[in-house]
């Protein structure tokens, strides 16, 4: 996958999902639905997009996505393991083959001890879960946009490999 605009990345994700016969779902904290919205803006998205969960508050991460309360208490919401649980929760709750998640600190101040710009993107498939950590520069808008693009890029890469 290339570092193209989100709209192009979303088209690439949906094409890859269609070719591989896979469905996708999102679980988003700092992007608050941006990833799902980009996917949903592509004509034909309903063939592969199951839906998304906006889990801005920890209570939603816990009760809907199944992120362990002990992990949230210990590590906070800006954590790679939280991103993994969120992605797996999206897969499970929405019945998708692949789940993607975003969590991070978009500012204006640090969150859970993590500096502004810290972002974790999680991916979950039937083979397992993983995450990547990023530190994006810029203001809140730029950080959220970069997180959305990385989530789409990672999702597309996973789908291309399937």
Short description:
This protein is an alpha/beta fold. The protein has helices at 6-20, 34-40, 58-63, 69-75, 80-94, 140-160; strands at 24-28, 49-54, 98-104, 118-125, 128-135. Helix content is 44%, strand content 21%.
Describe what this molecule looks like in 3D:
With 162 residues, this protein is an alpha/beta fold. The protein has one domain: Maf protein (Alpha-Beta Complex). It is built from 6 helices and 5 strands; from the N terminus they run αβαβαααβββα. Strands 2-1-3-4-5 form a 5-stranded mixed sheet, with helices on both faces. Helix 2 links the parallel strand 1 and strand 2. Helix 1 packs across helix 2. The longest helix has 21 residues. It is globular, with a radius of gyration of 14 Å. The relative contact order is 0.20. The model has no long low-confidence stretch (mean pLDDT 96).
Spatial separation of the terminal alpha carbons: 14 Å
Structural class by sheet pairing and helices: alpha/beta
Cα-atom Rg, whole angstroms? 14 Å
Instruction: Determine the number of helices (DSSP H or I, runs of at least 4 residues).
Output: 6
Strand order in the sheet with the most strands? 2-1-3-4-5
CATH T-level fold name: Maf protein
The CATH homologous superfamily is named CinA-like
**Rough outline:** globular
Largest sheet: 5 strands, mixed
Order of helical and strand elements = HEHEHHHEEEH
User: How many domain regions?
Assistant: 1
CATH architecture: Alpha-Beta Complex
Q: Which whole number gives the mean pLDDT?
A: 96
Give the helix proportion (percent range).
Answer: 40-55%
Strand tally is: 5
* Poorly predicted segments: none
């Amino acid at each position: 996958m290339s570092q193209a605009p989100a709209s192009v990345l979303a088209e690439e994700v949906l094409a890859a999902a269609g070719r591989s016969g896979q469905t996708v779902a999102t679980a988003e904290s700092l992007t608050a639905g941006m990833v799902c919205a980009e996917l949903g803006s592509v004509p034909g998205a309903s063939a592969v997009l199951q839906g998304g969960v906006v889990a801005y508050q920890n209570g939603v991460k816990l009760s809907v996505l199944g992120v362990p309360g002990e992990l949230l208490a210990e590590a906070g919401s800006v954590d790679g393991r939280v991103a993994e649980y969120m992605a797996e929760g999206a897969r499970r709750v929405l019945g998708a083959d692949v789940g993607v998640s975003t969590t991070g600190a978009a500012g204006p101040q640090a969150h859970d001890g993590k500096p502004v710009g810290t972002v974790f993107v999680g991916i979950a498939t039937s083979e397992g879960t993983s995450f990547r950590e990023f530190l994006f520069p810029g203001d809140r808008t730029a950080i959220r946009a970069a997180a959305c693009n990385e989530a789409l890029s990672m999702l597309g890469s996973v789908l291309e490999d399937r």
